[in-house]
Design a protein that fits this description.
Elements (H helix, E strand, L loop, with lengths): L3 H14 L2 H23 L11 H12 L9 H18 L18 H13 L10 H18 L7 E5 L2 H17 L2 H4 L9 E5 L4 H9 L7 E4 L9 H13 L4 E7 L11 H11 L3 E4 L24 E5 L11 E5 L43 H10 L1 H24 L3 E3 L7 E6 L9 H18 L5 E5 L2 E7 L7 H19 L2
Parallel strand pairs: 2-3, 2-4, 4-5, 5-6
Antiparallel strand pairs: 1-7, 6-7, 8-9, 9-11, 10-11
Length: 504
């Protein structure tokens, strides 16, 4: 037990750390530093990725833990040290706001979204029960209603909730489908269901689908992959053949997972045709629309997700094409009656049995997470500021740039586009004259090595993938500040680094 003097000293140190005036000073410094940084990044005055080996960053991060200020440091010292830490964090991070970032499906968020997020983080607006995060709950609820109507469902007929990412959203939807398809599996497990239940999925479905099957005890071996058409979309005819065979084998079918769009090349499945097949067989249709769901906000690109409204469940990530900071994803159920199907548990220490009507607003009853951050503050704030038009502009611009980049690749004799894009994801190979006629494995390995050289140079950031087992380069044009001129520069950068790699 602390002595009175020790308690007094501890309280003084705590009070100094909680001082609102300290926050005011730090906040001013942070905004100035962050604004200057974004200005440099958006003008490409820095490397896209300031590449360092992991061990170097870990060692430097550890060294700063040893440089913490002595107890009792005054406010001036704290602010100076704070600014140093902010500078370091900005210098060492990935620069998503650089228009030369064309990598993973992680956007350059609308900057003000980060400030709305900071509100929730600083005041720690937690969600699990309504009274711990009343405004966070209200913001989530109205966004669920708005986005669900954009999917195409009538007001108040559906249900949804925010989750910490699309993987948890997919898991939640799969869990609900499993419980509906297998009845007592929540309580009794899977042992009493005869032949092993199966999950039917798009051949290029996100890895979280197979991971969910493993987590839920279905087993990754019970994920039946449906063949794709020439555009790498789920083939409805092959889906029908798969379901027919499974029914003939008396295998319980948990759900069908379609994509809008696939992570690999951004292919949008023909959802209306797939829904027809699922309806004939009485099978739950889940659509992973983490990336492509945002086509719903665009009049121009809404046809890409025609039939989405017929899905039984839908995943839609705001931290992709709604340009929000991670993590902010949504899972929706077309039938509102299914909103409590995923989880069945009691926790009277948390959920008030004296107020059963509050269950509608206690998110912990419907999500994997118990405590959940106010994930929707950024989206709610930006939507309340700018309305739907900003989001439509972001989708329209970046999707259109994907098509423009494809046209540039088509026109370049030393590049091979591997598909006609439907959105802002474009996959291609660089095939210089020296590699014309090279074995596919050699050409594929060259793409992977070349990509590594480019990102370590800091000139551009793009990623790699494999198509039919052969390496390729993959871009997601997800920064709205990217221009056609930047795309031309990317091709030049690839050519220059490719020549160096070949020893030319």
């Amino acid at each position: 037990m602390l002595s009175s003097a020790e308690m007094s000293e501890a309280r003084q140190r705590i009070a100094a750390a909680y001082d609102p005036e300290l926050l005011r000073g730090a906040g001013h410094r942070l905004i100035e530093q962050l604004a200057a940084h974004l200005g440099d990044v958006q003008a490409s005055r820095t490397a896209v990725l300031p590449w360092r080996e992991p061990a170097a960053n870990v060692a430097e991060a550890a060294s700063w833990l040893e440089r913490s200020l002595p107890a009792g440091a005054d406010g001036t010292q704290v602010l100076r040290h704070f600014s140093q830490l902010v500078t370091l964090m900005l210098q060492r991070g990935q620069n998503l706001h650089d228009p030369r970032y064309v990598g993973h499906q992680v956007p350059a968020p609308v900057p003000l979204a980060g400030l709305f997020d900071a509100l929730g983080a600083t005041t720690n607006q937690c969600m699990a029960v309504y009274d711990m995060g009343p405004w966070a709950t209200a913001a989530e609820w109205c966004l669920v209603e708005r986005l669900g109507q954009l999917i195409g469902w009538p007001r108040s007929t559906f249900a949804g909730m925010a989750t910490h990412g699309g993987s948890l959203a997919n898991l939640t939807a799969l869990l609900a489908a499993r419980n509906v398809a297998l009845g007592d599996s929540w309580e009794q497990g899977l042992s009493g269901h005869g032949r092993a239940p199966v999950l039917v999925a798009h051949a290029d479905a996100h890895y979280s689908v197979g991971r969910s099957a493993g987590i839920l005890g279905l087993g990754t071996a019970q994920v039946e992959r449906v063949g794709l058409d020439a555009r790498r979309r789920m083939d409805p005819a092959q889906l029908e053949d798969t379901l027919r065979q499974l029914r003939g084998q008396q295998r319980p079918i948990v759900e069908v997972v379609a994509c809008a769009c696939s992570t690999s090349i951004g292919a949008f499945d023909p959802l209306a045709d797939i829904a027809d097949v699922c309806q004939r067989y009485g099978v739950w249709l889940h659509v992973d629309a983490a990336h492509g769901g945002s086509a719903c906000v665009s009049a121009r690109y809404r046809p890409l997700v025609a039939g989405l409204e017929r899905a039984d469940s839908v995943v839609w990530d705001a931290h992709k094409m709604l340009f929000m900071p991670a993590l902010c994803a949504f899972v929706f159920f077309r039938d509102k009656a299914l909103r409590f199907e995923a989880f069945r548990q009691e926790a009277p220490y948390l959920f008030d049995p004296a107020a059963p009507g509050m269950a509608e607003f206690d998110s912990g009853l419907r999500t994997v997470e118990c405590t959940k951050r106010a994930a929707t503050f950024g989206l709610w704030g930006v939507w309340a500021l700018y309305g739907q038009q900003l989001f439509a502009d972001l989708v329209d611009l970046t999707f259109s740039l994907g098509h423009q980049f494809y046209e540039r690749l088509q026109a370049a004799p030393d590049f091979e586009p591997l598909h006609e894009p439907q959105c802002n994801i474009v996959v291609f190979r660089y095939v210089p004259r020296a590699l014309a006629g090279a074995p596919p494995t050699r050409l594929g390995q060259f793409q992977l090595e070349l990509r590594r050289r480019i990102i370590e140079s800091g000139e551009f950031y793009l990623v790699s993938t494999k198509i039919n087992g052969i390496g390729a380069m993959r871009t997601t044009i997800i920064n709205p500040l990217t221009t056609p001129e930047h795309l031309d520069q990317l091709l030049d950068s690839i050519r220059r680094h490719g020549a160096a790699l070949l020893g030319a």
